[in-house]
Amino acid sequence: MGEHRAMLPRHIEASQISALLDSLGEPQPDHIEPLQVTAEYHAIFILSYRSPKADWILRVSGAHIPEIKTRNEVGMMKTISEKTTIPIPRVVHFDASTSNSLGHEYTILERASGISVDKVYDTLSELTKHALMQQLLEVLVQLDALQWNFIGGLAAQDDGSVVPGPVVDETFWQTSDIAEFWGPAESVETLNVQGPFTTFVDYCNAHLEKYIHMIKTHESMRWLRDLIPRLQATITMATDRAIALNDTRLILAHRDLHFANIMFDPETERISSVLDWEFSNIVPAARWNPAHAFLWNGQAGPRSLEEKARLYADFERQCKQRQILVDYKFTPLQEAIQQVVTYVRALTEVCPRAQQKDSVAGWRRSAEEALESLGV
């Protein structure tokens, strides 16, 4: 996507943070420190208290995806805290509006204990790596046990309740990208699906309708406009075959469960916290790991991918032995319509930016092959 960091909040003063804490009836910290990290969606501050000794993390959001991303993260964390034993930071306060002394959305979380696994991965023994994989498997088992009847997010409300919410996805067109590549006629709402959706067919059709709109609208996708009748026919076909297509399990998926999002205690070798739930969603089970991030060690290069594949093979063996998480698969019909959605999404993501020029022809062919398998 675009330069997310360009949208980060600038010049948040300590006095603004102090005013925020006063408005919340919270004590003033003994120390406020900006955290020097390359976060794409937040400016982060550590609020340190000496007595009682504690640290809070203040995450001040940019305006990338207004309101729904903050509400989704808090809604997910509240739900995980109430319905599972998965360790996560406690949400202290949040505001999904900009009507506060910071002028931005924010969350205040208790600081997670432990150390990020990706920082020490190369020093870990095989036994420790295996133990961490086993613990993540148990995280997935707990998520699998929750029951859902919609596809989308979980939106925290100002009164503390959590309700079904819209889809939130890192691949969304975000405000800075829209301003640069689309102009004032478009918005986060016009270019991205909303939801929640009652069925898989409703979810897929909503995507296809957005892609048709984008292909019609943006000049860079003129070469794709001959696909529009076939995409419209796919919507009709999906509606006609809804019973078969909608027969899929729905699960709450973190969707970015790599080791940079896992904190652990080196002494006990136990996971102490699972972080970053902002793009978690309730999805068809086959879409639990869409970016194939699960078990990635946070490092770049082919060796990292080989290591992830090695651990993942062990994970799959464990699932088969225990007969758990083994039904996370689409039927051929479901897979075909998902392939149409996936490849057309990729085209509508990169064409307006004039990116991936060597790939787009192949992506179109893949979309057409999926359309052919659907008979449209």
UniProtKB/TrEMBL annotation:
Q: Where is the Aminoglycoside phosphotransferase domain?
A: 54-285
Q: Which InterPro entries match?
A: AGP_Transferase (IPR051678), Aminoglycoside_PTrfase (IPR002575), Kinase-like_dom_sf (IPR011009)
Gene Ontology molecular function: any one = kinase activity
**One Pfam family cited in the UniProt record for this chain:** APH
Q: Which UniProt keywords apply?
A: Kinase, Transferase
Q: Where is the signal peptide?
A: none
Is Amino-acid biosynthesis set as a keyword in this record?
no
Coiled-coil segments, which residues? none
Stored PANTHER family? AMINOGLYCOSIDE PHOSPHOTRANSFERASE DOMAIN-CONTAINING PROTEIN, AMINOGLYCOSIDE PHOSPHOTRANSFERASE-RELATED-RELATED
This one is known as Kinase-like domain-containing protein
Organism (species): Kockovaella imperatae
